[in-house]
From TrEMBL:
Protein name, UniProt field: Octanoyltransferase
Binding residues annotated for substrate, in chain numbering: R78, G79, G80, Q81, L82, T83, Y84, H85, S152, I153, G154, G165, F166, A167
Molecular functions per Gene Ontology: lipoyl(octanoyl) transferase activity
Site (Lowers pKa of active site Cys): K149
PANTHER family (UniProt xref): LIPOYLTRANSFERASE 2, MITOCHONDRIAL-RELATED, OCTANOYLTRANSFERASE
Record: active site: C183 (acyl-thioester intermediate)
Further facts: In the reaction, the free carboxyl group of octanoic acid is attached via an amide linkage to the epsilon-amino group of a specific lysine residue of lipoyl domains of lipoate-dependent enzymes.
Chief localization: cytoplasm
Native source species: Candidatus Avipropionibacterium avicola
Family per record: Belongs to the LipB family.
Length: 216
């Protein structure tokens, strides 16, 4: 079973509705410093953002949206490439102290598996993918039956503590994904729970994710 493949790692849960991206980054930085000082436990922060494109360190200029689209583009210090945030998307920031023999890539794989578990609880089979040598990273989660990408993941670690996290498309407008090159993958087909299942509940999605990450 998938659950048995994951080590027990209970998380403290924070929840908000919509938070401006820049404000969220400032708050996340505070959480990271608190975790480094052992002032807080490992934390999962669930929230959403108003429309914004965020770009990682390797994002190519030609992958950016046209300014006329009117959606802010913000540079970040996370891994990964361009992604989109907006209403109807569940964002999860993970501030977690890694184990002594654990790297950020190991933890990203765990995040993928926990989100696959969450989607399974919602009735949507999903999978992670290994990246072929020399190809663009396939970090994230794809639907099993339609091969569409439903979760984007971009993380970093500093002094053994992680930051940033994942974006799970629940029931928002997918149109902005077509205005730029998501994840460095020109042919990627981004999807949502609503698109795949015909309906979606943000409340149910939050519950499934919270359960998969053992967050309370």
């Amino acid at each position: 079973m998938l659950e048995r493949a994951l080590a027990r790692r209970p998380l403290r849960l924070l929840q908000d509705d919509s938070v401006d991206y820049t404000e969220a980054m400032a708050r996340m930085a505070e959480l990271v410093e608190q975790r480094k000082a052992d002032e807080i436990d490992d934390t999962l922060w669930l929230l959403s953002h108003p429309q914004v494109f965020t770009v990682g360190r390797r994002t190519r200029p030609e992958h950016l949206p046209e300014p006329a689209r009117g959606v802010p583009v913000v540079e970040t210090n996370r891994g990964g490439q361009l992604t989109y945030h907006g209403p109807g998307q569940l964002v999860g920031y993970l501030v977690v102290r890694l184990g002594e023999d654990e790297g950020i890539v190991d933890y990203v794989r765990e995040v993928e598996l926990r989100l696959i578990e969450a989607l399974g609880r919602l009735g949507l089979p999903a999978e992670r993918r290994d990246t072929p040598p020399g190809e663009e990273l396939l970090t994230g989660v794809w639907t099993t039956q339609t091969s569409r990408k439903i979760v984007s993941i971009g993380m970093r670690q500093s002094r053994g503590v992680t930051s940033h996290g994942f974006a799970l498309n629940v029931d928002g407008d997918l149109t902005p994904w077509h205005w730029a090159v998501a994840c460095g993958l020109p042919d990627v087909d981004m999807t949502s729970i609503a698109r795949e299942l015909g309906q979606a509940s943000m409340a149910d999605t939050r519950t499934a994710v919270r359960t998969a990450f053992e967050a309370s």
